[in-house]
Amino acid sequence: QLFVRVSLVAWVTAAIIWSGLISSRAFAASTKPSTMNALHSAAQKIAEGKVIAQSVLWENGRIVTRSVIAVRECFKGKCGAEIELKQFGGSRDGLTMVAHGVTLLRQGEAAFVFVTADGPTTYQPVAMGRGVVRSAARRALDALRATLRAQRNSR
Questions:
Q1: Closest to 41 (Cα-Cα) out of 80, 84, 16, 76
Q2: Which 3 state secondary structure label does DSSP give 23?
Q3: Which tens digits make up the pLDDT trace of 25-70?
Q4: Is 5 in a helix, a strand, or coil?
Q5: 15/45: higher pLDDT
Q6: Phi and psi at residue 8, in whole multiples of 5°?
Q7: Is the pLDDT of residue 6 over 50?
Q8: Can you tell me the distance from the alpha carbon of 36 to that of 146, in angstroms, rounded to the nearest whole number?
Q9: DSSP 8-class letter at 49
Q10: How many CB atoms lie within 10 A of CB 66?
Q11: E strands, 60-100, in order
Q12: Residues in CB range of 60: below 8 A, 6 or more apart
């Protein structure tokens, strides 16, 4: 009975993490990484943190949301105290832009981010929505945190 319970928890945890990483099947070629190892390899930085500030602005004719994430723990790269994350989409001037495959973070929300440089001080998620894992299910997040710590310690 204990084995069945542990197996069920492991299966549910994996399903929650996988669904957070694979939120849609219709991605462009630039969103290719789909496994944890592929996301890890593609990311320059991986961090867990909380959105402490946001701004929505026009950039090259598109609406973008910039989120400042206070880093709780850094799993790859040199994260510093904060990461500025740029994501396509948001609402500005009475208009809303939705970018398919993008998981927009909200003020106060906690998440894991797998990012690459977008400029000198800004980053964008790897594989759009796949590079942002929202902090929803405690057990799933604990499993993801343990996996990332193990990868960080093995390198």
A1: 76
A2: coil
A3: 333 334 555 677 788 888 999 999 999 999 999 999 999 999 999 9
A4: helix
A5: 45
A6: -65, -45
A7: no
A8: 13
A9: E
A10: 16
A11: 62-76, 82-88, 90-92, 95-97
A12: none
- Residues for the chain: how many in total? 155
**CB under 8 A, 24+ apart: contacts of 103-106:** 103/23, 103/128, 103/129, 103/132, 103/134, 104/65, 105/51, 105/54, 105/65, 105/67, 105/69, 105/132, 105/134, 106/51, 106/54
The two tokens of residue 146 are 């343990």
The residue behind tokens 């989409």 is: 89
Q: What whole-number distance in Å separates Cα of residue 65 and Cα of residue 56?
A: 4
**Which residues fall within 8 angstroms of residue 43, CB to CB, at 6 or more apart?**
76, 77, 114, 115, 116, 126, 131
